[in-house]
Structure formats: C-alpha cells, structure tokens
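Design review, sub-item: ligand-bound model
Attendees: FS, YL, KQ
YL presented the inputs for the copper (II) ion complex:
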Amino acid sequence: MAMEKADLIIRNAMLIDGTGAPGTPGDLAVTGSRICAIGPSLDCGAAQEIDAGGKALAPGFIDAHTHDDRAVLVDPAMTCKVSQGVTTVVTGNCGVSIAPLTIAARPPGPLDLICPNPSDFFSGFAAYFSALEKTPPAVNVVAQVGHATLRAGVMDSFDRAATMDEVGQMKDLLRQALKDGAAGLSTGLYYAPARAAPTEEIEALAQVVHEEGGFHSTHMRDEADGVADSLEETFRIGRTARVPVIISHHKCVGLANHGRSGETLRLIDAARATQKIGLDIYPYVASSTILHKDRVALSSRTLITWSEKADGLEGRDLEEVAAEMGLTPDAAIDAISPAGAIYFLMDERDVKAIMAHPATMIGSDGLPHDRHPHPRLWGTFPRVLGHYAREEGLFPLETAVHKMTGLTARTFGLKDRGILCEGAYADLVLFDPASVIDTATFERPETPADGISQVFVNGQRVWRDGAATGARPGKGLRGTQLGT
Ligand code: ZN
Ligand code: CU
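KQ shared the predicted structure:
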C-alpha cells in the first residue's frame, strides 16, 4: 500500500485489534492523533519507526472503573495507570465524583476517598473539563456524575429519601453535568450517603440519563446475602428508565455467599436477553474502600490502607493493631476512623467465573490517594494478561485484550477508541505477551508491571521501557455515543 509519510510506524507486531479476533502479524502507522494505516507490510515511510520484534500491539487499555477524578489533575503523569498500558480512565464511580459540588466541610465517606478537602470539588463539569484542558494528564478521562455527590450538594442529612424538591434539584444538576460532557450516572447504594435512597429516587435520576444519553453504573446496595435482590433492583432501574446499566466490580461477598457467581451470572444473562447490561471486575479476591465494621465482619482478614487519626498503620493487619491497642476490633475501628482498608472476602472461583463472562470488562477500582493502596491500582491489567490469560489459561490473550478495549468502548459508547482500525485514535500499547505480569503485591503495592514496552495516547508516547516520557496528551472525552 502506498501512502504519504506517516509520523510513526510500528513494524513487525502481533496486532490484537480489540474485537476479540485472533492476533495477526503486521504493521501499524500513525499520523497525528489517529491510526492512518494497518497492513501486513506497509511500504510507506515514517518520521519514526519502531520494530516491535513480534510483540503484541493492542488498543490502549480502558480502565472501566476508577476513582481517578482528582488524581488526573494532581498526578497528571498517571504512572500507576500508563505503566499498565492504560490510556483512558472512567472516573466518578460508586456514586462518588469530583463534580458538581460546592461544600464547606470535609465530605462524608466515601467521597473523602477522592476529595478529602472541600476545595477539591468542582462546582460543575464545565469547570472540571476546562481544568483537564489547562493541565492535561497522560491519559484520557471519561467522567461520570456520582449520586452521593449530588446528594451531598442538595441534602442536609442522608438517612432518608430525597424529597420531591431535592430530587428535582439533583435532576437539574445531573442534566447540566451530562450537557457539559459527563457520560453517565453512578450510584453507590451500599454507602451511607446513598443507602436510604429508595429505588424510585435512582429511577427518577436515570430518567434524565435516558433523555440526555448515557448509562447508569452501580456499586450495588448489597454484594453479600442480598446480592440477588440488588441485581433485580439494578435491572429494574435500567428497564424503568430505559438506560444501559453497568454492575460495578461484581462480586459475591462473604463466606456464606462464596460460590454464588453461578446464580448471579444466570440472573444477569436472563436480564441481558431484554436489556443492556455490562459489568466489570478487578482481578483479586480482596476488595478495598473506607474502613467499615460491616465489611470487616465479612472478611477473613483486613488490612489498613490509611487513617486520619493514627500514623504508621498503613499496610497493617487490623486484628494485630487492635490487639496492640488493647481494644476489640470494633473499638479499634472507632479509634482510627476515618480510615481505609483492604478486605479479603471473595472466592477465587467466583472471581474467575465472573471475569470469564462475555460481558465482563476489566476495571481496576484502584484508590490513587491511599497511602498503602490495594495492588489493583498498579497491577490490574498486566495481572489479567499475564496471570489469568497466560498462566491460568482462563481465556485467550485476545479475549483478555477485548475485555480491556473493544468491549469497554462499546459498553460505554466511546467513539473511535478500543479498537485498531484506520481512523481510530492512536491509543496503543506494545507489550510482550510472554512476560507481561503484575509485580504489585499487598506488601509492596506501588510497583510498575513487567512487560509493558511502550504506550501511546492520541498518537503521543507516554511510556517507554519502564519510564514515563513526560508527555501529557490525554483529553477529557465529553459525552458518549450511547443513544437517547
Ligand atoms: Zn465501589
Ligand atoms: Cu469503586
């Protein structure tokens, strides 16, 4: 194929296009921010050529579930993500978003996981997107509106349903946010700021999403004994409001519920026959969020990730800390809260069954501001590729890539991303399928993965041979292709 000189050609790669199709050897050329040619052997020249040496070249990974709302502004290199091959992050999950909110005091948990200070919030998404334009990060950003954030802005107490008037105010804020470029609504019905919200409150808000276009993602009310009821609530919201729903970090929590993924995936499959449902997962048997007695009670082991009240507890076992303090675990929780924790509460068989489901996307759920974060922040994507696909043989490499690229772009309605084809954005990751693996552990959670050679965002290189390049070509991706 003859063509004009490209900016970049990557030759001799195993092209994994993100659709799930088998990889094929070939070359890929980039001009500006987009892929301009793909073929078995491109005969054009380029300002820069890279010999991939047979390594895999895939669309940049899309992190389907993040809490990177503020991290992309305060840590724009986003090394924890680009070192994994991530080129786009979906923010605002679990009902918690950086906008739209104006408050005077420290926000309630879990909002404090992303924004501990009132001044961290943005009054609206127009201001947030313009901040991203002024100080661009290395990665692209898809932003959701958090239901708890909306509640924090219009309600004086969270232990009740919103009044008609408050629902009206939240609908107005949500509509403006979606018009300003937010892609959907997230809820965290498990958490205190939203737990008292009845299903009807979410349906009323999801109706606005239906009118403006977008989706509803949810950290469900119950991922333990009541997981089946929570799935039904999630499906109902999607049906009533006619919006696609995404079940966040799907899991079956607590010993009594281990093994229930067969049941939950059957329920999801039955509902998928009549409505749009997606789900995401992180590849670990431990979860992480704020420190909470309910979660501790369901866990075989709890590690502290941060504490506002006590220093030096990061990475420590809660039971050991309680014993040293001469307190029961519950009393120790009261003494060190607000705090964060890692909880060992899932079954490996459930994690694998959910991960292998055809609608399941990969999302890290990493908490970038934790002092001793869950290793998922640095390890999620290489762990799926290296551990679950290569070592465990849970699915082919191409399926693993699809769950981080094409499937994710389709589920969230992201245009020209998540796929290798002419005209798509040149978000790319070059990696070694034989060696890619996570290195972050629960003891040492902040170590970059092995095997990620080069990463490009909008045609510019952000990662090469174990180091960030300093380029920050990321964009706020406004809106979504999901129809109204
Ligand atoms: Zn969550
Ligand atoms: Cu989350």
